[in-house]
Amino acid sequence: MLLKLSLAGIKGRLRDYIVLFSGLVMASAIFYMFESLATNEVFLQQNSMVSSVVFIFHLGTVLLSIITFVYILYANSFLMTMRQKDYGMFMMLGAKGRKIAQLIFVETFVVGVAATIVGILIGLGLTTIVEKLLTKQLEIAITHFSAVNSKAIVITLIFFAIIFLLAAIVNAVMIVKKPVLSILKASETPAPAKRKKITLFLEAIFGIALLAMGYVMMTLVTKLAIAALVIALITIVAGTYFVFHAVLIFILNLLKQTDSLALKGLNNFTFSQLSFRIQDYTRILSLVAMLFALALGAITVGLGFRNEIPKMTNQTTAYDLILNDSQKIVADKIEALKPTLNATYQQKETDTTVYYDKTEFDRTPLQNKEFVDNHSTKTVRYSGEELAKDVTKQDALRQLELPEQKTKEHQLVSPEAFAAVQGKASTLQVVQVKDFMTEKEALQKLAAQNYKNNPALEQEGGFTQKATIYEVFNSLFSGFEFMGFFLGIAFLTMLASCLMFKILSGAKSDVRRYTMLEKIGTRRQLLTASIRKEIGVLFLVPGLLGVAHVLFGLQMFTTLLSEPYSNIWVPFLIFFVLYFVYYLLTIWIYTGIVMKREA
Predict the structure, then answer these.
(1) How many angstroms from the chain centroid is the CA of residue 200?
(2) CB 555 within 8 A of CB 219
(3) Strand locations in 106-231, DSSP E?
(4) What percent of the chain has pLDDT over 90?
(5) 87 CB-contact burial (10 Å; exposed 0-12 / middle 13-18 / buried 19+)
(6) Could you tell me the end-to-end alpha-carbon distance of the chain, in angstroms, rounded to an integer?
(7) Considering the entire predicted model, what is its pTM?
(8) CA triplet 572, 557, 475: central angle to 5 degrees?
(9) DSSP 204-241
């Protein structure tokens, strides 16, 4: 009988249970997605330039475990707010505490384990989809990655089974030990104690000062190194806490005292609701803001590394294609590239010397890249006369030649002297195109054909071709790019879910307020507008603060990235679209809980 009543109660709140179950499924799916990376040490080592990346991902596992634990706490709190009144009614009707405890235990544990199993299956699919999207759409080159990871499956199952087992025990014990009346009146939340205005003002100033100090330290990382990082970490974390604990509440108090705003519609009610909530939500909002910044930073830096690949490739060599003995390559293929530069230098080669006609270099000077600083290069041009006089400048020419030619003496002579040389004739052809990335595939094919015609080049390593250099940089940096996108999206989904369930777990206590407003004649349109504003602030403020953290935090990567802010709108757009979806979902569920549905 008790089981039937429980099932009837679940059926009556089926929509809320579907949301809860889907949230738990996403939590386990995201956890599995992360673990499939974190436990694949071969993948991490093969696709990263940083030797400590495996250790970093182990730290990431700890961080994700903490976030997941917090998420499950809020999801579990949402479950209990939905069901505890029912349990109280069962106890009033004579149900034994032991039976209620068993019912709660089974309900919590079974829902949790079922969600974990479904989540792992969805995680396998999501991991495969994300991997395919990132490798194909972003042209990322990764190796040793597989969506199916038995070690990650076992870790996910054990982790969530332990969490839900603990949650089930805690839920059962708490409900049985509580008096029936306290269970029935659990939604009556006491108002937080009022704080003195001067204390609030001083805390607000202190919080802003801490954030300012942290942001300044981020700009000084290149000078102060680890000291700046430590100071920035402490001050920004503390400053973030005080933004929600004092700054935001101080602003809300000012708004409530502004009659032109407070007396318009339900604004005064909305401001009061926010003041009440934010004092209770300080910790979770601070956590969301900080981890929002970490997640957004991960995807932004990942995209930054992608932008560096063509830039670093262009800085390495002046020519888009180099052809040795180019007569073996069909000229039509080169013309199809519509080159902006297509120069051929005649060569004659003896046992000890390579000869060039220096007038050809006078007509089309040899180009070479020289570094100005860590992030920029300049193109220098050498005429035939300069190459003939300066042996060191000939090194730029040697880089383009076949291995057997590089070790020989080089002579740049007049056309008459060149014609008189008796030796093996060949050519060196250099090509530049308008846009390397647009013509990349055709250039790669021509470079491969040049390697095939000259096997010694490939044996040497083949780093003279821009297409080959691009592939090398792409393989080095795309591992970071993949991890950044993968982890950023996963963390954002988890954090937004945490905030959603935190808001929903307190929805039951708000039912009476909205019911009273509706009974005294407040229009539903005003009530729903108030809900949108209230939840909008709870989502928007930590998001904006997280964005500010990222904008200043990118200063730390100026030594690694030439333009850390390039195309920054892309990750920001991805994040805010996902964030907005969670915002709309939270409004929909919250409105359904606190307001009676119209007949």
Answers:
(1) 35
(2) yes
(3) none
(4) 9
(5) buried
(6) 31
(7) 0.69
(8) 85
(9) HHHHHHHHHHHHHHHHTHHHHTHHHHHHHHHHHHHHHH
Encode pLDDT of 361-379 as tens digits.
999 999 998 877 666 788 8
| CA separation for the pair 440, 2 (Å, rounded) | 69
Q: What is the CA radius of gyration of the chain?
A: 33
| Residue found under tokens 């560096």 | 308
Helix (H, G, I), strand (E, B) or coil at 473: helix
Residues 6+ apart with CB under 8 A from 50: 56
> 237: which residues sit within 8 A by CB, 6+ positions away?
286, 290
Mean pLDDT of 327-335: 77
| Percent of the chain residues past pLDDT 70, beyond the cut | 79
CB atoms within 10 A of CB 225: 10
Highest mean pLDDT among 334-338, 469-473, 510-514: 334-338
What is the sign, positive or negative, of the torsion defined by CA atoms of 489, 495, 496, 497? positive
**Two tokens at 442?**
């055709």
pLDDT range class, residue 83, cuts 50, 70, 90: low
CB 484 within 8 A of CB 302: yes
Q: In whole angstroms, how far apart are CA 110 and each of 25, 123, 163, 222?
A: 13, 19, 12, 52
Confidence at residue 51, expressed as pLDDT on a 0 to 100 scale: 46
